[in-house]
Inverse folding.
């Protein structure tokens, strides 16, 4: 045991009336909602990078956090792992997620970095033997080091492409060894700054082949989990190839991967793309590529990805409504890709941030389940499209323009607008949240 979280007990459910700072008011993991325990519905994961590797900087200032494991060696990496698993225990977290660069020091060579990763994976495996916390997903950091400044799979330098391929292979091996339920590809710099030095066609083909190789390797090693892409627009690259769910789906269709790869959707990225979180989830579900979520929010007065813990259960409820409506998570879950504010220096702040986020998500899911079980929204949705259940309406979808036009004239159709009832629907939602 370390002394980093000294004096902080395991967080437990205490109910909505509790005034304890570190207690769950809404997240009772054993509570059954729609036939499943809340823990099974929400599948919470702690993000290793923001919780333990992020130094507290922002675009205008550097490190504010001082952590005893902030050193670039294996001793510090193991101390960081010790503290991480202590937090998992305090929160009773079902899952965690990591990038390779979060958990091991960078070596002088690729081979040394790989050996460092393998050593820490073995260390994780030992700790997981006595922990309930499992690996939701692993991924590779292909964006922080200067070698990735022009992208990874889309880089104009073939040696960088090769380095990226070797890095992803090592991270997939690590994820597989730890029993990870997904593997995520986050193209942090898969995009471009200017067309003046960019060959769009070439870079797209490189990205498509890279992803195909990832899928091929998944099957080669027998990895049973899901391959996920995390859409992200504009940040840090001006034009991102994985801008949003629709863009990713078009990419997957182009390369015949729509049945092999799903998406990990982040709330903050959805907002940066000009969408709502629930839109991206609903679209992914309708396309058959919904996989998992990163639960973090942006500051709506800021134009960049601030990665804040969720604090609006009404907003979260609409997202979980779409998740439940789609059947819930399978291999995915709710990963807190969120970080403390750079002035929140104390260990207890890290615990409190997760407690608050977990409570907000639980309260949102409970409200979403109540809405879905009531059925009012679905009834009103069905009423709006009821006309399409008529035989003549269904027939139009297999007909042609000339036949439809003839019917309009023959029946002297004069359709009148009908209310979308948006305000009434919003009022209905507010009864639950």
């Amino acid at each position: 045991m370390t002394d980093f979280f000294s004096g902080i007990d395991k967080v437990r459910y205490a109910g909505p009336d509790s005034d304890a700072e570190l207690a769950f008011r809404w997240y009772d993991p054993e509570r059954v909602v729609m036939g499943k325990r809340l823990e099974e519905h929400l599948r919470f994961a702690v993000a290793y990078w923001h919780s333990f590797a992020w130094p507290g900087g922002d675009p205008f200032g550097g490190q504010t956090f001082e952590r005893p494991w902030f050193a670039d060696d294996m001793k510090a990496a193991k101390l960081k792992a010790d503290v991480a698993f202590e937090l998992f225990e305090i929160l009773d977290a079902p899952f965690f997620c990591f990038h390779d660069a979060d958990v091991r020091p960078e070596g002088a060579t690729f081979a040394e970095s790989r050996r460092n990763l393998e050593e820490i994976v073995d260390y994780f495996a030992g700790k997981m033997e006595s922990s309930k916390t499992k690996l939701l997903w692993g991924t590779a950091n292909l964006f922080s080091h200067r070698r990735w400044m022009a992208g990874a799979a889309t880089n104009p330098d073939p040696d960088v492409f090769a380095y990226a391929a070797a890095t992803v292979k090592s991270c997939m091996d690590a994820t597989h060894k730890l029993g990870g339920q997904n593997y995520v590809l986050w193209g942090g710099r898969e995009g471009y700054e200017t067309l003046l030095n960019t060959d769009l066609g070439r870079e797209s083909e490189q990205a498509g082949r890279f992803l195909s190789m990832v899928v091929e390797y998944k099957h080669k090693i027998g990895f049973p989990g899901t391959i996920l892409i995390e859409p992200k627009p504009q940040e840090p690259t001006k034009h991102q190839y994985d801008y949003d769910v629709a863009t990713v789906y078009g990419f997957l269709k182009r390369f015949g991967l729509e049945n092999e790869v799903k998406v990990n959707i982040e709330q903050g990225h959805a907002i940066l793309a000009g969408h709502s979180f629930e839109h991206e989830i609903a679209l992914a579900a309708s396309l058959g590529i919904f996989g998992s979520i990163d639960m973090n929010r942006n500051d709506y007065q800021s134009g960049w990805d601030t990665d804040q813990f969720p604090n609006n259960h009404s907003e979260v409820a609409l997202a979980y409504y779409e998740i439940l409506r789609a059947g819930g998570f399978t291999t995915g879950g709710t990963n807190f890709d969120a970080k403390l504010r750079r002035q929140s220096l104390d260990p207890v702040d890290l615990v409190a941030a997760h407690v608050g986020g977990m409570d907000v998500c639980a309260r949102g899911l409970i409200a979403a389940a109540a809405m879905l079980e009531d059925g009012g929204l679905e009834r009103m949705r069905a009423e709006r499209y009821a006309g399409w259940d008529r035989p003549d309406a269904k027939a139009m979808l297999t007909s042609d323009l000339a036949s439809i036009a003839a019917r309009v004239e023959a029946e002297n159709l004069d359709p009148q607008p009908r209310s979308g009832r948006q305000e009434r629907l919003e009022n209905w939602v507010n009864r639950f949240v």
Notes: The chain has a mean pLDDT of 96. The first strand starts at residue 32 and ends at 33.
